[in-house]
Amino acid sequence: FRHHNPPYGFKVQNGKLVVNKQELKICRIVVDFMGRQKRPVREMAREFIRREIKKRRGHVKWGYLVVQQIFKRWNGKI
After folding, report:
1. What share of the chain is helix, strand, coil (3-state, %, to 5)?
2. Can you name the residues that pair with 13 across neighbouring β-strands?
3. What is the pLDDT of residues 16-51, one digit of tens each?
4. How is the chain split into domains, by residue range?
């Protein structure tokens, strides 16, 4: 893997992308909330902030674009 940061839900191990199990839990929540429950992306971002769920680098502030990218990457795959 040659990029600086792996996509959310993955980590680099021995130069290859592998699933990050802790981040995958967040990805499943996003897919369930937005895909199955048909809830808006901004509401999901606000919910993560309310629950104080931290992003990869320890920040609690979730932007709707980050949540949207997670949904696009993982919808239909988990």
Report:
1. 45, 10, 40
2. 16
3. 999 999 999 999 999 999 999 999 999 999 999 999
4. 10-74
b (16+ CB within 10 A) / e for 36-54: eeeeebeebbebbeeeeee
pLDDT in tens, 45-62: 999 999 999 999 898 999
Length of the chain: 78
Q: Are 28 and 9 in contact (CB under 8 A)?
A: no
Strand pairing of 16-19 and 10-13? antiparallel
The torsion angles phi and psi of 58, rounded to 5 degrees, stand at: 95, 0
Q: Give the global pTM.
A: 0.84
**Distance from C-alpha of 37 to C-alpha of 14, rounded to nearest angstrom:** 37
